[in-house]
Amino acid sequence: MAVRMELLVCGGTGCQASNSNRVLEVLREGIKGANLQDEVNVLMTGCFGFCEKGPIVKVMPDNIFYVEVDEDAARKIVAEHVVKGRIVDEKIYREPETEEKLPEQSSIPFYRKQIRIALRNCGKIDPENINEYIAADGYMALAKALTEMTPEEVIDVVKRSGLRGRGGGGFPTGIKWEATRKSNSDIKYVICNADEGDPGAFMDRSILEGDPHSVLEGMAIAGYAIGAQFGYIYVRAEYPLAIHRLRVAIKQARELGLLGNNIFGTNFSFDVEIKIGAGAFICGEETALINSIEGGRGEPTVKPPYPAQVGLWKKPTNINNVETFANVCPIILNGADWFAAIGTQKSKGTKVFALAGKVNNVGLVEVPMGTTLREIIFDLGGGIKGGKKFKAVQTGGPSGGCIPSEHLDTPIDYDNLTALGSMMGSGGMIVMDEDDCMVNIAKFYLEFSCDESCGRCTACRVGNKRLLEILTKITEGNGEMEDLERLRELAETIKDSALCGLGQTSPNPVLSTMKFFYDEYLAHVKDKSCPSGVCTNLLKYYIIPEKCVGCTACARVCPVNVIHGEAKKVHVIDREGCIKCGECYRTCRFNAITRK
Ligand SMILES: Cc1cc2nc3c(=O)[nH]c(=O)nc-3n(C[C@H](O)[C@H](O)[C@H](O)COP(=O)(O)O)c2cc1C
Ligand code: SF4
Ligand code: SF4
């Protein structure tokens, strides 16, 4: 009997964490109970990206998109939708403001402006079934490259497409491939960088979990273009599901002869091995990554020579990011002009962003380069959580910069973000609201860089520690005006003298917050106050007389007895003795205590 319906269940890490495995089981049990297993398929797919609303179940061909599906809802979807053809109304996505029901994925604002190239198969196919990938034109690009194109033609298409590396630096991919091709050696390597260490970023993880073959196929095409027969995927150990799906994909590709010797009956042979990293952020830097694969310490080395000349085991090596590889097959199939028509003049195609922080729709979005920050945060992201005011967005991971509201209409591309003192990085996008203290944010990212510095060069190892000490002094209320100048000078020195990208970019959060939020630094240093009420040492607690009913609750919890007042009369805090523990603030049921 022909299959008449498919239930696609999100099997990304986010939805699995909210029990989508159990939802899948319940759907399968229900279908079996209704004796419909020959007519209805239940599939686990990769990530749909809308993690805020998971677990997600999509019913095809009806094109109905269910959100926040739990076990009960799964039973209802079978009993109502599958059996009786009635949509389960309460699990349809609703616009938060208007309550309008939007049953189709494409009509939901989160998806409306997305163009999915790297994520094309995520949420559409079963990543553990190579036949589904093949049915979605999988391995066609490799076949075309091997049987219809010379390696030089492949490189030419990638060059003309304008594809730039999605791992952070934005280096033109075709030029890198050409340089590796031109390096003279009988042995060369392809490496896929799946180390993805930026806090909050999960673009690469989702691609590997949702469409692992697209990365393998992209690597094989790169191998053909540069003249390599072997590739490594360096993936962090914290990604067990991605590693599992990669292993399944490699096994299935080998079984069908799509990896291994004489692929498609040609002279080209290519195989891939997984290398598991231990989770050090610095191992994402390409030379540190190469050292790590070789069994050495994950420390960067000075460039040049670049990996394209002297890479893994001293052989020419082409290293690209997961998302870069995921873009390669559509470029080969659809042509350079198709890809180059999307995006801005200098940044072509799309970019996947992991939208996180104080935004309503946390998740993964893929948008054309040139989409504005406002469109991503307010249209796709649904605006700021709790109706609060937008303050800044941090792009580019821990060493990116914080961009304020006056630049929300900046079209995002590599160059515009760099001009704003931030960067594209791998695509992390963390939204901050009025409650975030930008001095504290700079300190948070600097702590990350200090922890993750490999310690090889003094500028980064010692310089960042000194920066952090000054920031700590400021957030604790001991900052002096000279500290602000010291911060700036030291940050510039570290940028100029650190050996690798980590140290060269780690002062970005400090410099960008000093540029755009200098008033907050001044408030901390001059007025000894934290305008956002975050830096606890600087907080001052007040009782608002008009709101205080004299219930005495705050006076009773104050551990140093500095709140005075008679019952049913307005209370007062003696700030001299206040130790800023915040107990009174948390206790008052009348919102009569404020802190500034
Ligand atoms: C500290 C540091 C961490 C990095 N981490 C990653 C990473 O996790 N993934 C990645 O693809 N590139 C990372 N990069 C960039 C790589 O060094 C390299 O530029 C990239 O893998 C090249 O691929 P692409 O040209 O496709 O972007 C990192 C760079 C630095 C300096
Ligand atoms: S800049 Fe930092 S991470 Fe890079 S080599 Fe120097 S110490 Fe190591
Ligand atoms: S707990 Fe609130 S209402 Fe009660 S005395 Fe303190 S400030 Fe006034």
From TrEMBL:
Coiled coil: none annotated. Keywords: 4Fe-4S, Iron, Iron-sulfur, Metal-binding, Oxidoreductase. Residues 539-568, 569-596 form the 4Fe-4S ferredoxin-type domain. Transmembrane segments: none annotated. It comes from the Bacteria. Pfam families: Complex1_51K, Fer4_10, NADH_4Fe-4S. Signal peptide: none annotated. It is an enzyme of class 1 (oxidoreductase). SUPFAM superfamilies: 4Fe-4S ferredoxins (SSF54862), Nqo1 FMN-binding domain-like (SSF142019), Nqo1 middle domain-like (SSF142984), Nqo1C-terminal domain-like (SSF140490), Thioredoxin-like (SSF52833). Belongs to the complex I 51 kDa subunit family. PANTHER family: NADH-QUINONE OXIDOREDUCTASE SUBUNIT F. This is NADP-reducing hydrogenase subunit HndC. It comes from Caloramator mitchellensis. The gene is hndC_2.
